[in-house]
Amino acid sequence: MLIVSQIREMVVNLDTICVLGINKNNSKEILSTTNNGNTQTLAKYETRERAKEVLQDILKEYKKVLTTFNRGTGQQRFYDLPKIYYMPEK
Fold it and tell me: What does pTM read for this prediction?
């Protein structure tokens, strides 16, 4: 899954992120830290609560899959679709 920063100037691949969360020093910011230790601010919000809501939205989007049902065999198939999450402006 790709995450586009709030100001639309950075795209982060979730596969290379080892930490995605709220900044300990500024609870209104969402940070990502890559596997090699680089930290980026992805978004800044008015409140900590809004930052937490956005994190939950990212998780919901990440968990989405396409489910199909084959009537002939009765089997379900699950497909992980390519996803892009755009950090909300507000």
Answer: 0.81
φ, ψ (nearest 5 deg) of residue 7 = -95, 10
Rounded to an integer, what distance in angstroms lies between the CA atom of residue 45 and that of residue 27?
9
Q: Are 53 and 61 in contact (CB under 8 A)?
A: no
CB atoms within 10 A of CB 52: 15
Each residue of 24-34: pLDDT tens digit? Answer: 999 999 999 99
- Hunting for tokens 């795209």 — which residue is that? 11
- Whether 87 and 10 have beta carbons less than 8 Å apart is answered as no
Distance of CA 35 to the CA centre of its chain: 16
Written as six digits, the tokens of 12 are 């982060």
Please identify which residue in the block is written with the tokens 């507000």.
90
